[in-house]
Amino acid sequence: MVYAIVKAGGRQEKVSVGDVVVVDQLTGQVGDSVELEPVMLVDGDKVTTGSEDLGKVTVTAEIVRAEKGPKISIIKSKNKTGYRKRMGHRSKLTRLKVTGIK
């Protein structure tokens, strides 16, 4: 089984061909092809981690859609002063489908 560990959106993800992963927002339109930076490649028993060998490896993915993460509630308050502040946040994400590891 061939799989790769790629750096995408500040995190590392384990991907193989056909996998769908969700990463931090990437620029591009739906259907665009994106190249991900490999950190490690496993091809059966052979493991590739050297930077000169990984320079020859390309991991391509296709943008499926843009998404938003779960809502995070942020509440600040101070005791005895009546200070209350409420905020929310939803991170922007991109869903990718891995199309090839070469």
From TrEMBL:
<dbReference type="GO" id="GO:0005737">
    <property type="term" value="C:cytoplasm"/>
</dbReference>
<dbReference type="GO" id="GO:0005840">
    <property type="term" value="C:ribosome"/>
</dbReference>
<keyword id="KW-0699">rRNA-binding</keyword>
<dbReference type="GO" id="GO:1990904">
    <property type="term" value="C:ribonucleoprotein complex"/>
</dbReference>
<keyword id="KW-0687">Ribonucleoprotein</keyword>
<protein>
    <recommendedName>
        <fullName>Large ribosomal subunit protein bL21</fullName>
    </recommendedName>
</protein>
<dbReference type="InterPro" id="IPR028909">
    <property type="entry name" value="bL21-like"/>
</dbReference>
<comment type="function">
    <text>This protein binds to 23S rRNA in the presence of protein L20.</text>
</comment>
<keyword id="KW-0689">Ribosomal protein</keyword>
<dbReference type="InterPro" id="IPR001787">
    <property type="entry name" value="Ribosomal_bL21"/>
</dbReference>
<dbReference type="GO" id="GO:0003735">
    <property type="term" value="F:structural constituent of ribosome"/>
</dbReference>
<dbReference type="Pfam" id="PF00829">
    <property type="entry name" value="Ribosomal_L21p"/>
</dbReference>
<comment type="similarity">
    <text>Belongs to the bacterial ribosomal protein bL21 family.</text>
</comment>
<dbReference type="GO" id="GO:0019843">
    <property type="term" value="F:rRNA binding"/>
</dbReference>
<dbReference type="InterPro" id="IPR036164">
    <property type="entry name" value="bL21-like_sf"/>
</dbReference>
<dbReference type="GO" id="GO:0006412">
    <property type="term" value="P:translation"/>
</dbReference>
<keyword id="KW-0694">RNA-binding</keyword>
<comment type="subunit">
    <text>Part of the 50S ribosomal subunit. Contacts protein L20.</text>
</comment>
